[in-house]
Amino acid sequence: MSLTVLEYKTQGNQYYSNNQSLLAIQSYSEAIKLIENKLEEENIVSLYLLYLNRSAAYIQDKDFYCGYEDAKQSLKLKKSENFKGFYRAAICSYHLGFIKQAEEFIKEAINDHQQNVLDYLDLKLLIEKKVQCMKRWRKPIATAKKGLKLLEQIFEEGVLWFEVPAILYQIRNTLRAYFEKTNDKKLMNVNHGDLGLRLHELAVQLNYIYPVEKLLMADPIFEDLILNEMPDVGSLRLQAYEQRLLPRDQRDYDLEDKAGNDLTAYEFSFFINNVLASLVVNSSDEKISLRALRQLHRLTTIDLYRQALGDALSDAINTYIYKNYQKIDLVEKFFSNSGVEILFYDYLEAACQLSAARMIKKITVGHWKKQSLKTIQLVIKQISKKIRYEGIELVEPKPPSKFALELKKLMSFNSADDKVDEKRKNFDLIVNVLTKIYFIFGKQPFIDRSRYDPLFLYVNQMWFEQINNEQDQHNIPFLINGWNSILTQWLKLAYENRRQYFEKINPDLLYDGDDD
Q: Which domain of life is it from (predicted)?
């Protein structure tokens, strides 16, 4: 029997007091769900307070991004006298590297409530300390190249480790000045592409010579930089991202082009991404390993950051995680902590699609059973995109051209045949995944998706309505043959016949508004 809102809140408070942050988050989430879905007629608990409490639980779990979102939601619902909302928003902003927002939130908290002013002033001092760290090497390091040389010396000699975050901040600041303000090559004194490569090499060197988790535990600012802070995507990318839901004729495409030229986050991430991915695999501290994985998941699944980081992110994940697909403990940890969502983004969009596909094959029925419905919906959505992008070639790959055949003879390799075989393997993999999802969850996730997706509307009307869910759900050969058949039919369907399924879907809902 479900608890009431008040009971869930009380339960969450108890878990929070016992430092059981994940259980507290679950309890507060259930209470929020009851109110927002209007499942309780009378609410004696304010919604803003539940978001505020859940924010505290996220902070306790060091999940500052979710804590930040909840604190902002709490302030949106109630701003006046919500000093805890401002305070928690300031804490999260500080850890996420949103320094201006942190300064504004803590100012509001101090002005709004004097009772806890000492706590607020302590946080204000922490913010100022991080700002000082960010600025400490501004004058000594005039160019990014000098910053690289300093890092190389520190890594080689094993001294002055406490200066690493300050030097990294200055390199990032130099990149920001180069891309956003002047494009002055004197600021860099090195090609920005070479800078990214050297940052990658330094990260690999750091991962090899020193237990990185010890550095993180010894320096809270370095811990934030690696495990908590979000990439500096720049004002142009933020503006372009904010207009993504506008109708096409109202969007500023020049702005989007300019935003795409800002590679600050991309180049700097070669260091951060490789340290994060290495921590997932190599850290002896399981909590730090899981926090690193959570940060990789966040960077992958939030469009703003994934687009800014590009293949710099997926390459690091591939190098440290996908290529270790035979390590059973790593695979279990990855699949049990949102790794499936990372996989299906990379399978669709990244250069490491083949590695992602190989990793997907390791997902067993047991792993699928542990996934949330949110994850299942994302997987179905990504598979639909894959089918859309690849089209008829999934089932009828184009034969190799004469040039490809001649090249194959000349170079003595099988590139032409491999491409045809890759398409067929993709189709078999898609069928395998959809079969396992149906086997565990039945029709409903696909029916839910059919509100947005013509493919699954077609599947529902042309196949699901003719089968008995209870009888056929666990008939593996039947499901494999069924998915093979229905997907092939869809891919071979004439445009005029396919169009009717598009027309049955509300244009505002089509593909969840995906711009592709």
A: Eukaryota
